[in-house]
Amino acid sequence: MSDFFSNGWSLFVAIATVGGLVFCLVLLGVAARHRVMANDNSTGHTWDEDLREMNNPLPRWWAILFVLTVIFAGIYLAMYPGLGKNPGSLGWSSAGEYQKEQAEAHKAMSAIYAKFNGKTAEQLAQEPEAMAIGERLFANNCAVCHGSDGKGSKGFPNLTDNDWLYGGSHETIVQTITNGRNGVMPPMAAAVGTPDDVRNVANYVLSLSGSAHNAIAAQLGKPKFAVCAACHGADGKGNQALGAPNLTDKIWLHGWGEDAVIAMINNGKNNLMPAQNTRLSPEQIQVVGAYVWNLSHGAAAVAAK
């Protein structure tokens, strides 16, 4: 409960918790009193003609157990967090417990990953054990976006085609997994010009990859492409330093066709890959990075042979 945005809420929780325990003791005291309500030791209430509610006190063992429960709750709240922002005398927290378990797990696995230290992606790709570990890490952490086969989907890059926004070296892949990426294309319609200019530029972009396009519109859009060349290059082959896609290779991350390109120019796009360094250790990232590298470079090497 350390994330309270106001001290008032922390105080409210603490008062409500302590007040609840005090109320339990008061309720026990009230219920334990023996009140004379009728001469026959009943409350005077009768149901179904002969079913009487007796006025007996609480059993002593039950009352003692109730008091011990309240005492246990008080000791627990003094030792563990539960009274608002009070961390408790033991300083325990679920986040700290998680971090401790993660540290123990990483320590236990360090011996497994030690044998992979200092090896290149090419060498790791030849290690069946490393690739098996990388495959499991990929399935647990990456497949939800990129697919179990790494071929991605609309908005999520295909990792098997050797087409890389930021570069496909093992070092770059490791950097991407570690720190994440935030690819931003701003809306460019205002810079391009009129809606007709946007349509013409879209057709010129399609022509760069030999995709179906309107040739006349493409010629008209070529001069306007200058505002796009700052990121994608004058030849449209992109810029990996900026993460600007290659527009000449017929690989379309966010959809293909005139309408899709027009929408991209008009609306822009903000694509985020979250950093994985809080989920994976550096050793794990090295191995899963080699697995991702092998998805495209391994296949390319086989094809070359």
- Indicate the percent of residues in helices: 40-55%
Total number of β-strand segments? 4
Main structural class: mainly alpha
Give the strand order, joined by hyphens, for the main sheet: 1-2
Largest sheet: 2 strands, antiparallel
Low-pLDDT runs of 5+ residues are 300-305
Helix-strand sequence: HEEHHHHHHEHHHHHEH
Average of pLDDT: 89
Q: What percent of residues are in strands?
A: 5-15%
Shape: elongated
Distance N to C terminus = 59 Å
Structural descriptors:
13 helices, two-stranded antiparallel sheet, single chain, two-stranded antiparallel ribbon, mainly alpha
Brief description of this entry?
The protein has 305 residues and is mainly alpha-helical. It has helices at 7-32, 60-79, 94-114, 121-125, 128-141, 143-146, 170-179, 189-192, 195-208, 215-221, 226-232, 258-267, 282-304; strands at 42-47, 51-54, 181-185, 269-273. Strands 1-2 form a two-stranded antiparallel sheet. Strands 3-4 form a two-stranded antiparallel ribbon.
What does this structure look like?
The protein is mainly alpha-helical. 54% of the residues lie in helices and 7% in strands. It is built from 13 helices and 4 strands. The protein has helices spanning 7-32, 60-79, 94-114, 121-125, 128-141, 143-146, 170-179, 189-192, 195-208, 215-221, 226-232, 258-267, 282-304, and strands spanning 42-47, 51-54, 181-185, 269-273. The strands form 2 sheets. A two-stranded antiparallel sheet has the order 1-2. Strands 3-4 form a two-stranded antiparallel sheet. A hairpin with a 3-residue loop joins β1 (42-47) and β2 (51-54). α7 (170-179) packs antiparallel against α13, α9 crosses α10 and α9 packs across α12 (258-267). The relative contact order is 0.11.
